[in-house]
Amino acid sequence: MSQQPRNKLFEGLREGDLKGCVDSIFTVDQYTSKMGNDRDCAVLRFRVNDKFPAIDMMEFLERGYGFILDSDISSGEERDSKYSVFVEMERTKKLPSQIRTILDGLTKLTGNDEWKFRFYKDSMSRDFTEDGITESVPLTPEDYDMKLNENRNQEVNTFFSEGGVEVSVDESMTVTFKKPFFDRLKLQLECIGQYDKIMEDLKGPYQIDETSTSEIFYLTKYLGNYDINKIGGKFVIRKNNEAALVNFNKG
Fold this sequence. Notes:
The protein has about 250 residues and is of the alpha+beta class.
C-alpha cells in the first residue's frame, strides 16, 4: 500500500518538515523593530537549528499570515550555530490570538505543542497562553511606553544598587543620582548589558590621562564598588558580568 502524503501547508513545505528544528521557547520584544517604532510593533524571535529550515520557516510565516508585517532571519550563523527567525506584528489587543494562530501552524510543522515565551529581558520563561501574553506584553503603544519605563527604572536601580544612592531615570535615558553630602550626579546612559558584548562593540582606546583618571576616581567614590574604565570617551561601569555604558550628562 502506498503511503499517503502529509498535509501540505504551502508549496514546498509539509506537516512535520521542521520537526526537531525549532526551539519551543520564543521571545517577545527582546529585539527592536526594523519596520517601525517599537511602541507600534511587537517582535517575536524563534531559534532554528540550521539555515535552510530557518528560511523555510520565514517563508511559511510571511506567506501564510496576513497580519505579519515582516519575517526575516539573522544575517548569519550565531555563536551556538543556530539561526533566529524574527516576526514583526502590529502591537494591538489582537496580538495574543494572532500569536496563538502562528503557533498552531508551527505546531503542525515542528511537532512542538508546549510553547513557552520570555518577554523583553526576562530570564525566566513561562508557558504560552493568550492570557499570559496579555499579562506580560504591552498591547498598545501607550502600554508599551509605561512598561518600558517601569522595566528601565527597575534595571537601572538594580544595577546601581551597590553604593547606597538614590537613582532615577527619565525618558531620555538621563540617570540622576542623589547621595548624602554629594552634589547631584547626572549620567547619560547608553545601555546596560553583558560586559563582554558591550566591550566587543565598543571602539576606542583606554583613556588614562589626568582628567580621565580624576573622573574615574570621582565616579568610583560616588557610585561604590564598581570596576570603571574610560574607553573612547565613554565610561564602562562593570558589575560582575554586567556593565553600563555611560557618559557625563551635558545638560
